[in-house]
């Protein structure tokens, strides 16, 4: 590994330019961190860049507006800002963080149908005019606080299967849309488009056919009610990581766009991907801080894995007891693994080093005093795995750090940022182009450097330490 050169001012000293594999990078960092027994994230900027490129290649008509709620890490936001994506912000703090990076207000959608009044005022003061709504009360609020805003009506169209359904909270049924469109017209408000979100971690990509068709009907109604809609927002729902279904979803989306919103209509199409952009870019690495070998009732070993159930059956005695190992790590369900509770994620670690020999029925626990703080109820892990060894958790970028807290005083993992040389060169080129196009002179990119903005923006990561290396 070698340290970064000229883009250090953008990403800060936490960036490492490395040509090594993720596993080798992680091994190096874990050696530095082992004295402090601290978990850390490996963030691959290469992966974020790859995903954005793949998006544009797969759905060239759809402009991604990254959902900041999914992971508000500054290095991610800076990368996406540089790559020219837009941003979906749900609150004043999210807008402020994105704006502080020099992103123009026109690249932000305030995509929350139920906004706090002071946040609307803030959006107006900053010129963030694109906003979603789905109720009469929201329209009344907007007519008072932001009458010149550009409003996008969120409709409901749920995937049959999704990791997190959203339709029960937001979005009107298409048959309820007309009354809102009429009310907006009465208030002299401008409805510029239609939005939907099929559900996060959508497992039924065909839903986009239904949703885009429904959006077209609402578009036609909007025109009948005197509006001039020109924006379609197809929301999020795209899988991240191994379950990546972008190509499949894109097939349905491109087909439906061609049928209902052909290029000739001149409609701008945006999306709000969260999970897709970041899930696989983050790998969490946690040290084992304690281990306990214990004999427990079989009924306490909860697993939906048939092979594991059989193993437990084989190992249990006549009294219904079985030998298990408990491993404790320094991050748990109150921290990064809140995703197990809130985002219904199924997590499974590997070990950083390889181990020969037998395996034990193992549970994995977080560091707090709460019995709920169990990350994995049962899995097979090497019997010789011990305190000071490391567990590696892939695809931990979505809805992890963003919702993590410090219950019991446990700090959150720091984020170590990595990129390959070719990515550094690519981003540097973009930075240079942006500087030139924005000012006609070099050195004033729209994207602020670490020194200019990072200190004022909260990243949700723990304070600086020699181990996490944050500046
Ligand atoms: N847009 C809105 C309004 C959302 O509520 C969410 C997630 O909750 C997203 C986008 C991001 O969704 P995903 O991570 O599934 O892409």
TrEMBL record:
Keyword Lipoprotein in record: no
Catalytic activity: L-ornithine + H(+) = putrescine + CO2
Gene3D superfamilies hit by this protein: Alanine racemase, Lyase, Ornithine Decarboxylase, Chain A, domain 1
InterPro entries, sorted: Ala_racemase/Decarboxylase_C, De-COase2_N, De-COase2_pyr-phos_BS, Orn/DAP/Arg_de-COase, Orn_de-COase, PLP-binding_barrel
N6-(pyridoxal phosphate)lysine carried by residues: 69
Pfam families reported in the protein's UniProt record: Orn_Arg_deC_N
Pathway involvement of the protein, from the record: Amine and polyamine biosynthesis; putrescine biosynthesis via L-ornithine pathway; putrescine from L-ornithine: step 1/1
Names of the cofactor(s): pyridoxal 5'-phosphate
Annotated Gene Ontology cellular component terms: cytoplasm
Any single biological process term in GO: putrescine biosynthetic process from arginine, via ornithine
UniProt entry keywords in alphabetical sequence: Lyase, Polyamine biosynthesis, Pyridoxal phosphate
Active site residues according to the UniProt entry: 369 (proton donor)
Similarity field: Belongs to the Orn/Lys/Arg decarboxylase class-II family.
Protein's recorded name: ornithine decarboxylase
Organism annotation: Hirondellea gigas
